[in-house]
Amino acid sequence: MSEFIPVREKKDDGVAIRVENITKRFKVYLDKGVYLKERVLFKNRNRYEERNVLRGISFEVKKGEAIGLIGENGCGKSTTLKLLSRIMYPDSGKIEINGRVSALIELGAGFHPDMSGRENIYTNAAIFGLSKGEIDRRLQTIIDFSELGDYIDNPVRTYSSGMYMRLAFSVAINVDADVLLIDEILAVGDMAFQAKCFNKLREIKNRGTTIVIVSHSLAQIEQICERSYWISEGKIREQGAPRDVHPLYMDYMSHKGQGIDGGAKTDVSAETLAPASAEAMEQPAPETPVEPVQPEAKKRWGSGEATMQSVQVLDRDGNERTNFAPNEPITVRIAYTAQRMLPDSVVGIAIYKSDQTFMYGTNSLIDTSQPVKLQRQGTIDLVIDSLPVANGCYTIDLALHRPDGFNFDFWREICTINIAGKVNPPGLIYLPHLWEFH
Amino acid sequence: MIEQIKEIYCYREMIWMLVRRDLRGRYKASALGFLWTFLNPLLQLGVYTIVFSIIMRAGIEKYYLFLFVALIPWMFFATSIQGGATCILTQKDMVAKIHFPRQVLPIAHVTASFVNMLLCFIVVLLVCAFGLGLELVLLPLLIPVMLTEYLLALGLCFVVAGVTVYFRDLEHITGIFVMLWQFLTPVMYSVEQVPEQLRDVFMLNPMTPVISCYRDILYYRQAPQMNNLVLSIGFGLLFLVIGWFLFDHLQKHFAEEL
Predict the structure, then answer these.
(1) CATH number for the domain including A80?
(2) Model's pTM, two decimal places?
């Protein structure tokens, strides 16, 4: 039995969340009798399996940091979040959280359909542990953020699902928690409201709120988190910068998908491209935090059905170069070979600044809405009119993949370009411009 | 434990919210609405008056009042325990999905029943004033009596609320148990009617002094025997401590059980 209850300590060493080797076991009842009669008469109804959902997870999150938990369904990431939010308690191990916790796990829990939006703000915020005065002070901010306007005094049952979620999100995000736990809920409302939610998340993060996100959307995590933890079978399998962890995860998932399909069996090239999976399986129980993935460890992965043989960056005269002015055209030339003709393929590119800021990404499917056909051998040119960005060093990722994201060949930081303009104004981009004085 | 009490204090708004919702929800959608809170005890009194002064003569003067001043407090106690058995189960969506101190639910349930009793007491006091006359000096003594009863009710509510989550039969067992307890408590009869040799055992029932005190103050209009109440306060604190720790232990797996 658990003697370890989550404690809230005032000790301020900059750590907001400290998780030490937590484990959790669930009894999965095959058919549970809750009444005495059922328990006595049908003894076999009480048969259950014990499932170890978490087998020793440890991590630390500093104040103001954001981390993402990723993994397959049932890997234990949502359970971890439930333990952090203290809906459940670990069987062993220790969780320390400094400050007030707000969980965006079940949005709108406790909403009463017959009460107005305004009344529901009060009840819902009360469930988050706010006092009347605290709610009064936040009321206007919450209403403004929800964009419900005059609808706020209508009963919640008359709301569309989008309005409902907007109201729920507005309450939860305005609790002013020190630690915010989010489970797969950023699919709130329309695109505009989603963007607003994201900006709000960044804003409260900058104010020093610690954020833990569970999501299947790796892109969302990349946008906001400094670190990702890939949880697999109740343990942390990899951890590090999202850009380092996510490719490993995606690679694993694409191989797994193939295994289930029983489809085209990968050959040796896949094994050589993906050496990490086998080793990762052998990881010891992380009593000490796992070493982050080395950035150099893995820059290329994929099934190898198609491979990039060479990549060149060319100027307008067709000469290979690495230094460009922001207004110069750039051509990226990929020479590839494929094991067989691949009619259903996509070519993608991503450009990162040296500080890992994601500058731009696109692929042939986005641009043409059609898959491209890869021959057994060929070249692809991507012609970029100009790269109007601030001076600095930029790296390029290239990928040949299927429309569903299954990678034939993903090559990270395959080439580097230096942008050196005559002037160097501050900011991320270089806008072509002109001053006119009259 | 102090941390937990602090946290529950932070959730006081939630407790009040649940109490308000409970009180309003009781007579929701009925035409007379909240008025039923007062009508209900009045009509009950009417029934007792008819039954016990016309049909079944009890041999106690103004038996309907004798019964009424004990029955309203008893009903608070009974609903606290009976409803307490299900107070976690009825909120299972919330318990399984969001965090809040689980103690909030039993506290809110008992408090709502308590507030309901206080509202009924408006009727009780009015009826007593007309039927028997009130001894105003004695009325402040109702406060410690009510608080003792609250203590007892809350402690037991913690126990049944926690255990019922794992053992659903307790809900029905509680119903029978509360009925038995009512007959073992001098609600419908007076302590004097209990055989002499059994009376010592009888006084061990923590509800006996509580109900006797109510009746002393309101019906007999005499100073209650407060020394008996001390025993009840002791029981109340004991129940509360046991209930608290048992509940705290049980609540850790609520989310998985529901």
Answers:
(1) 3.40.50.300
(2) 0.70
